[in-house]
Automatic annotation (TrEMBL):
GO terms for biological process: positive regulation of transcription by RNA polymerase II. This is Cytokine-like protein 1. The lineage of its organism: Eukaryota, Metazoa, Chordata, Craniata, Vertebrata. InterPro entries: CYTL1. Keywords: Signal. It comes from the Eukaryota. The keyword Signal applies. Residues 1-22 form the signal peptide. The keyword Cell wall biogenesis/degradation does not apply. It comes from Muntiacus reevesi.
């Protein structure tokens, strides 16, 4: 190896390592991402499967991992007997079961419940941002 290539090779190694190895997800970030994914998938299911009568009778899935009632909500959803033969519902129940297991077993110490308002999971508050008037 020539002496001119050594600094260039060292620079490439140092510049390439941090960019190729992102930080691994934490328990908390995994729970948060999965809860958002499940909520989004549930809303999509309701929008695309209106002809499937069983979808209307599924327990609502608006998940907030900081609400203690979310554990009961996940249990109820997974145990609901509706839609046994609908593939998208089965996939959603599998994700809900995975989130429950992660929250209840693997990441139990990483989670802090900030409320126990079960109604908030049934009828979530929609937060809107009002921009101030720009006066000149």
């Amino acid at each position: 190896m020539t002496p001119q290539l050594l600094p260039l090779l060292l620079l490439l190694l140092l510049a390439g390592l941090p960019a190729t190895r992102p930080a691994p997800p934490t328990c908390y970030s995994r729970m948060l991402a999965l809860s958002r994914e499940i909520t989004s998938d549930f809303q999509s299911l309701q929008a695309t499967e209106p002809l499937e009568a069983c979808v209307r009778y599924l327990p609502r899935l608006y998940l907030d991992i900081h609400n203690y009632c979310v554990l009961a909500k996940l249990r109820d959803f997974v145990a609901s007997p509706q839609c046994w033969k609908v593939a998208r519902v089965d996939a959603l129940k599998d994700k809900a079961r995975k989130l429950y297991t992660i929250m209840n077993s693997f990441c139990r110490r990483d989670l802090v419940f900030l409320s126990d308002d079960c109604n908030a999971l049934e009828y979530p508050i929609v937060v809107t941002t009002v921009l101030p008037d720009h006066q000149s």
